[in-house]
Amino acid sequence: FSRPNHRPIAAALQQSQNDDFVLEDVPHLTNFLPNLPSYPNPLHSSQAYSIVKNTFVSQEDVVAQNIVIRKDNPRGVHFRRAGPREKVYFKPEEVRACIVTCGGLCPGINTVIREIVCGLNNMYGVEDILGIEEGYRGFYSKNTVRLTPKVVNDIHKRGGTLLRTSRGGHDTQKIVDNIADRGINQVYIIGGDGTQRGAARIYEEVEKRGLHVAVAGIPKTIDNDIAVIDKSFGFDTAVEEAQRAINAAHVEVESVENGVGIVKLMGRYSDRLYKLPSAGFIAMFATLASRDVDCCLIPESPFYLEGRGGLYEFLDQRLKENGHLVIVIAEGAGQEYVAAEVPAVNQKDASGNKLLLDVGPWLSDKIKDHFTKAQKMPINMKYIDPTYMIRAIPSNAADNIYCTLLAHSVVHGAMAGYTGFTVGPVNSRHAYIPISRVTEKQKTVELTGRMWARLLASTNQPSFISSDLEGVVQGIDSLNITSI
Length: 484
Ligand code: ATP
Ligand code: MG
Known about the structure:
Low-confidence stretches: 1-16, 474-484
Bound molecules: adenosine-5'-triphosphate, magnesium ion
Distance between the termini: 27 Å
Mean pLDDT: 89
C-alpha cells in the first residue's frame, strides 16, 4: 500500500494536533521566559563530539510511538528526540545543578548519578553540582554535598544510592524556596511514579514563580511499569538476579524427594476493585529467561486454587511427572485471597502507598496443606524471597550503558532549556517525554498480548481464564496503554 501523506516534519509540527500526526511536546524555559538568551553549545568545540557526523539533534526530529504502521492507521503520537541541541540556554559557568533520589532502591541509581555529574562536567564544563541527601525532604532539612567526577568515580560499582533516599516529605513550597535560595537552576530528580508526580509539582511551582530553572525527571522503577518508554533502568539487572534465585530453588527441589520451590519476586499489586494497575514484568521475564519454572503467577492474571484448570490440579500433575516443581509468584498476585484470610490492617508507607500483604508465606502454607492434608503426600518446601537482594545489587553491563544514555539525554535536555520532562527510549530512540505522560498510567502485562502467550506456551501452565473471569481479564486489559 502507498505510504501516508508525509509532509516535512516542520510543517507537521505546526499543525501537530490537526490530523493523524500528534506531537506530545515538552515545555521549554522560553515558554514562560520568552526573552531568555541562548548560547552556542560547547560541544561545537568538543574533541569527542566534533567528529560526530551530525553532532546536534534537530529541533524537528521526533520519535514515533507507533513503530508498526498499519494500513489506514493514524501516525499517532510522537515525542521530541533527545540529544544535544545546537543552542543551549545556560552558560556552563552559571549552571548550579542538583541531583536528588527518592523512593525505593533499584540497580543503576548510582550509575545515573555518576553519569549526570560526568556528563555535565565532561560535555558542558559544568562544575557546580550539588547532591541533595535523603530524598525530597533533604532540600529543606539537610546540607548539600558537592558532587564532582572524582567523588562519583566508583559509585556505579555499588548498589543503592550515594545520596540516600526517603519516602514522604514532599513540600513543594519549601523545596522551591530552597531551590531559589541556593541559586540552583537545574534540578535532576531520580525516582518512581510518586517521585515524578512530585517533580511535576516542582516544575509547576517553578513556572508559576518564573524562575530560570530546568526541572528534569529520570524515571526509576524496578518493575518496568513506566508507560511509554521501552524499559526502565535496573530491570535487566533485576531479571538476571531473579534468575539466580530461581536457579537456587531449582537446585534445591531437584535434590530432594517431592521438592516444591516458591520464589517470590517484585511486581506490584492489582486492585481490581479500585482499578489500580499491577506489573508482573520481572516474574514474567525471569520465568521466560530461566526455563526452570513450572508456573508463574502475576497480579494481572487472576488465578484460583481449586477445581478444574486450577493451580492445585496443575501442581499435582507436575509433581507426579517430574518429582519436583518451581513456582514464581509476583508479590502483588493473589492479594485478594490473602486479604480474605488475614485481618485487614490497611497499612501505608510514608508516601501514602498501600503496603502489600505477604503472599509468599500464604501460598507456601496453602500448597503444603494441599499436599500433606488433601493428597497425603509429604513435600519438601523451599521458599525464597530475594527481593532486597535484587534491589540492592549494582547494575549489570547492559543497564550501566543504558543508565549512561539516560543521563546524557537528560543533561542535553536541561542544557537545551527543556523543563518538566522525563527521558527514556521509545522504540529504542531516546525521547523527551512530558512528565504527566509517565505518571498518569502505568504499564502492565497485557494478558491478551504476545509475551504472556509466549510464557504460557513455555511453561504450559493453565491460563486460569475460566468463563467467569473473562470479563475481569478484559476489564484489566482495557486499563493498559502499552503492551509488551
Ligand atoms: P517506588 O514506588 O518505585 O519505590 P516512588 O517514587 O513511587 O518510587 P514514593 O515513596 O511513592 O516512591 O514517592 C517518593 C517521593 O515522592 C516521596 O518523597 C513522596 O512524598 C513524593 N510523592 C509521592 N507522590 C507525590 C505526589 N502526588 N505529589 C508530590 N509528591 C509526591
Ligand atoms: Mg511508587
